[in-house]
Write a structure and sequence with these properties.
The protein is about 65% helix and about 0% strand. The N and C termini lie far apart (about 45 Å). The protein has six helices and no strands. With about 120 residues, it is mostly helical. It has a domain of about 80 residues.
């Protein structure tokens, strides 16, 4: 049986679907600097800072064009909450594990996880 040649390193083109080794736990630079922080941002907004997000959104709706001036307090509270979660190493590790699990599943099945729209 002939093997297909690829310009990608072996761990990126191996696996049952040719999408990479599902057991590979190494992370590329783009995953560390873009993908995992994006997951952290989404989880922090949805799960960890939901009350702050709600208060800020409500203030913006109530204030209309004056929201820049009127919602400073809510904006600061939201920024503080998000920043504290971005700097939390345990939260980063949890999100990294979740990302690796999703990537492994994709590499095994070839099926992308549907994008959830808010």
């Amino acid at each position: 049986m002939a093997t297909e040649k690829s310009v990608l390193p072996g761990n990126f083109s191996a696996g049952p679907k040719g999408l990479g080794d599902p057991e590979d736990r190494s992370l590329r630079k783009v995953e560390v600097e873009v993908m995992i922080p994006k997951l952290m941002r989404e989880k922090a907004k949805k799960e960890k800072c939901a009350p702050e997000v709600h208060e800020f959104e409500q203030c913006c709706k109530d204030s209309s064009l004056m929201m820049v001036l009127s919602c400073r307090k809510q904006n600061s509270a939201l920024k503080d909450c998000l920043t504290s979660w971005y700097q939390n190493e345990e939260f980063r590790n949890t999100c990294t594990e979740e990302y690796l699990k999703e990537r492994s599943e994709y590499r095994k099945t070839g099926i992308k996880k549907p994008i959830k729209r808010a």
